Amino acid sequence: MPSAVLDSQEVRQAFAEYDRQVTINNFKVACVIGMLLMPAGIILDANVYPDKLGLFIQLRVSCSALIAIFFGILLTGFGRRRYRILGVTLFMLPASFIAWMIYATEGATSPYYAGLNLVLLVLAFVLHWTFWESLTAASLVIVLYVAATLFHGPIPPKAVGVFVNNLYFLALTGIIVVTGSYFHTKSRFREFALRYELDKNRAALEESNRKLLELDQIKSRFFANISHELRTPLTLLLAPLESLIQRFSRAFDEDTRNLFTTMHANGMRLLKLINDLLDLVRLESGRMEVKREPIEVAEFAKGLASAARQVADDKRIKLETFVDPALGAVLADRDKLEKIVLNLVFNALKFTPAGGRVSLRAEKRDGEFVLIVSDTGMGIAEKNLPFIFDRFWQADGSSKRKYQGVGIGLALVKELVEIQNGKVTVESQEGKGTTFTVRLPYEKAAVPEKEPKPEPRERVAGEPETGGTVTSEEWLANLYRRAELFPALTPLQQAVKPVEFTGNGRRATLLVADDEPDMLRFLKSQLTSQYEVIEAVDGQQAVEKASQFLPDIILLDMMMPEKDGLQACREIRANTPTQNIPIILLTARADEETKLTALGVGASDFLAKPFSTTELHVRIKNLVESHGYQRKLSRQNQALESTIEQLKDTESQLVQTEKLASLGRMSAGIIHEINNPLNFATTGLFALRHKSKLLAPEQRGEYEEILRDVEEGIKRVRNIVSDLRTFTHPDTEQRDQVEVADVVGASLRFLSGEWRDKVHIEQKLAGHQTVWANRNKMVHILVNLLQNSLDALRHKKFAGEQPTIWIEGRVENERSVIVIRDNGTGIDAEHLDKIFDPFFTTKEIGEGMGLGLSICYRIVREYDGRISVRTEPGKYCEFKLEFPVKSQPTVPSEQQHGELAQL
Question: 594-605, pLDDT tens digit by residue?
């Protein structure tokens, strides 16, 4: 038990009051014991000390008289207020008189010391004093014993042992009594605290139960009152509405007739719900009476089956009926029996899919009237069977449940059956079907006679025209019965919506999703004049049609099957093409939590039912216009971004062109300066070659070898200068059959300083392979690709393999193919779709602008070619160039073959 309860001042005060009463009662018991036992001790006196019998009789009678006086005082208010002090007096009376008797007999060896032990036992088991009271009393007993012994006279040496023995047992008994009193007091307090808390909780529960009963009664009265109050205006609405439908239906257009039909259907649904609530209230209050009348069961079952036949045919369900001929006519409450059967049949039709079967059987079994409604529907989970007859309980209570309802139908069935001394049971297997069995007492009745038709009467104002053959009360009863027969199911044909085609481009497109056909029809009728309306009957259709048609705005009902409005809103927002479409959520729940939840999942607006059509139009118009402005702004932003990208590309091309032009001007000066010393060097070599004749024969070989090396170097410098002159003075418009071997050799020469003695180059070029292109642009492509390969090789640490670049050229399928492959670091998968984008680079700042591969891509596309890449990070990277073959390749010149040989 929590210590806070034990330490509570309230509990301690209550315990003190409780202990006071218990202690007073214990004192009374102790008084009775004292008054009876003290005189009874005369028997002991007569046998042990007959010579002192007279004195002991006086002492015992006096003690009993004093205890009687004490008992009388205890019954007064004074005694009850000072019961603690009087308790000590009560205890001291027998103890003092017994001590007197010890004094009057043998002192330390007197056998009457045992009487003091009895007093201590009374203290322990009758008085139940506190620790300090018990300690005081036990100490006084020992003091009285010692005093009686000492006043008797000196203790003889032989009696010392007896004295110590008696004193020891008195002290031991006192210790036991005090210890027991201590723990007994604590135990009593804990027990009292528990009982006090339990009583307090019980009182609180009783008070809560009383309040709940009051609230339940108030709720029942409220339901009854509000239902009656709703019934009256609803009846006054339905009566004129039926008059309009019957008398002026042909005068209205189709839209108006549809509105009237929708109003009438929903009015009947509301009336049925109100009637069911009233029945529950009557059943709960015990005010519902059973009115038995003769019923022809076969005709009764046939009529109810006929009422449900339209719903069954609409859902393409086979409805079967069977009536045991032995039943004949029975005594039963027709109205209640109708409600029972119709609730069970409509419930079976609701949960049975198309192509299924529902049967209604009426039989006589063991002297009982048995009704059986079975179906081949979805069945009920075993865990849900104990709850299906509970009020307002539904197997699926979520906002995305497929089957709507409030959960009172089966509860009403159970209570209507039980009020007729019957019993209803259910058997079900998930996926196979459900069977409800109603057992009622069988009371055979005579076949009822058909009543004659009543005489015509004048129509009551406000009633629809019925030919004037019924009274006002009969018309109301007929209206309530028609409401009971009215199906609360969505017609299958209305639930299946064809795919609409929208695309006239003149009006905004509106997607409306609602599982209630009447609400869907109403919304469409109100909005179709201004918008192209697309319909969806559940959340899944809403998501699919939003992606298919990309409407300008979406109206979602909060509670729909398959996916509720919140889930549909989430998925629409998660889909990129539909994420910016404005969404309005419609719901009957208008609390703040629902609003915040709706806005939290991405809804643009929230509209609570019932809503004004004017407000609906205004909100839709504002959101559509806002969405239109956003889309226009988005298109302008895209155009602006595209223009900026084009400007960047143009700027990069201008920068590149300017760089090349600057390189050309610089190269022209360098080439001129290089050519002059090359000519001098060539002339000097010619003169030195003739001087070899002046050398000794053994020195001529080494001399001529040195001259050949110098001549080879000069020739290579001349070739590089020639390539540089061609590259820096390009003719970008001139195309020709460019030898692949030529451009590969030129590209390698440009980069020789980076790969020679560092990277192994392997070439496998097809003979006579050419590309119809500009030579300088082809060199540009290969230089860029080779430079990338060299950079990749430079950043990789090799262990056991050599940095290598493979260059392959071949002609296949009428295409000239060039492949450049390296065993470098490769390209990461996340970068593959960006490597040909302008300014994209993974290199450090200052190592590249990210234009190389972009320029290569554009040049290749310019020549109707294709560039692709294959790579595996950490292992290799391979670029493949493919160009169309437009004519036969030319034979390479001897000079080009010489350059390849030099490589």
Answer: 778 888 888 888
